[in-house]
Amino acid sequence: MYSNRDGHPGYYQDYLRLGEGQSPTFGDNLKFFFNYQIGHMYGRYFLWNFAGRQNDQQGHGTFTEGNWISGIKPIDQMLVGGQDALPDSLNTDPSNNKYFFLPLIIGLIGAFWHFGKRQKDAGVVGLLFFFTGLAIVLYLNQSPLQPRERDYAYAGSFYAFAIWIGLGVFAIADFLGKKMNPKTAAGLTTVVCLLAAPVLLAKENWDDHDRSHKLTARDLAKDYLESCAPNAILFTYGDNDTYPLWYAQEVEGIRTDVRVVNLSLLSADWYMAQMQKKANDADALPINIDKEKFKKGVRDVMYFQDVQIPGHADLNLVLQFMLSDDAKNKAQLNSGEFENFLPTKNLALAVDRNAVIQNKTVPKEWENTIPDTLAWTYNKNYVTRAELSILSILADNNWKRPIYFAATVPNDNYLGLDKYLVQEGFAYRLMPIQVAKENAGALVNTEAAYTDITKKYAWGNMATSPYLDPESYRMIGLIVNSITGSTATQLLEQGKEKEAKEIALLVYDKMPKRVFLMRDVLNYTPIINVLYSVGETQKANDIVKRNLQFLTQNMSYYNAIAQTKPELEYSNIETALRTLGVYKSILSQTKETKLLQEIQQLEENYKKQFGI
After folding, report:
1. Which residues, 6+ apart, have CB-to-CB distance to 442 below 8 Å?
2. Which of 221, 339, 361, 442 has its CA 20 to 30 A from that of 590?
3. CA nearest to 133, candidates 152, 147, 113
4. Global pTM?
């Protein structure tokens, strides 16, 4: 155990039940190695392929996500609990795959038979199995809380075991051939093993591996691009955000005028230099910094050192200071070397009002809110090339090109500019305005967002696809809450009931008629509220009843698990209780008294159950 990042020390402590300040022993390290690195991060993946899989959600040790199962009830009850109260959402999940250990058993028979018959040959397959499986575990020494499941890293060992499944057919035929006619034994074994391995695996896996209906990544990539005004700069974050957008532009030629900027790559000197060149129909980024000033080894990172500058310092002067090669503008390190640094977090940028209006940066009704200066507090203790690039763009762009952050970019990448970001569909646009928000959510440019949502966006076949992978269904919460929910809510507040109704009905039609995650039961509340407000009571009731069924079934499931296992579903339980409170508030403003009483009764029962 070695990692001290992203909550890893706390995870180590919880996993090994170590006290505060208590150091792990060699035995603790072995326990983590065998239980977590081999058991959770290899054995679980191995058994996904040859015993069965609970679902396709990423598992971090709970009993409801990403475990291996077998389909044999007593065994699964012992492993993960709750088998007498499985919710419909799990039973009908295409990724709930049960193989009853049959491929595993045939493979083990084949391995033993192989070693008995041809030890040298079996040793070669065994070495392939070891070096593409457990040897990788030893080599990687994985820390916990990986950003995604890592089963693909061990595919070679699964292939090796599949060789033994094939040889298992020979082993069983060899054994039965001694009890009956060899030809009969061979034919019977072939049929039974075909049914027990490839046919069973195809039956269980086909529905959650068929990609013929999968359009979400492409369509949502198009939506991100269509959220942007012409010749825009769009900041994205990470692979999942960026690669589908590159595909949409490079392969399908969609919105090639938008310059997509991956913030995860922007700290690299080569990528920052690449951004200073034109790409497709998109102009180079306005980063007016000489390449010698950000090449590798130069200004890789500049740390914050407060020099007590009063008020907010002009961004252009701060940039000049950080890019200066003069030793008097640098801090001396203990080594005697001099390095550039960030002298203040309080930054200001003068606003050219005429340029803002001429470039139509803000809607006409907000033009009277344009301030003379943008003033904000930088939100990090360092500046890498990524932050340096953004600051340079702000200083040099003068509102000529629209600047957007994708809706999935983490807040700390906004550099403290949150109050100047306005939602326009799947992206937040930087606007020099000072508009008071009427609610706690993001400020929405409702005219632009309404047009994008109703006229430009595609929805990835989400409502009708027989299978959605986790990356796709995790987008549902963002869509129904932040993208459409916020827009419809603010349209309603502006008295634009027709437009709000159109968006809410679009969500009802275009989103799946099933629930995947507990947090989505809560995420639907803005749309439910709008539907009730515009008189679409039946459709609002449909969503509420569907969500309540998911909530009650899963709460029963969590309770059943807790009868034999530790209670690990605190977050989902808390979300369920919070949801009931919000639903109660919404329904109390309607005439749906029966549904309201049901929600009140559920809330009361759960509060008693959990002692709240």
Report:
1. 421, 422, 423, 428, 482, 486
2. 442
3. 152
4. 0.92
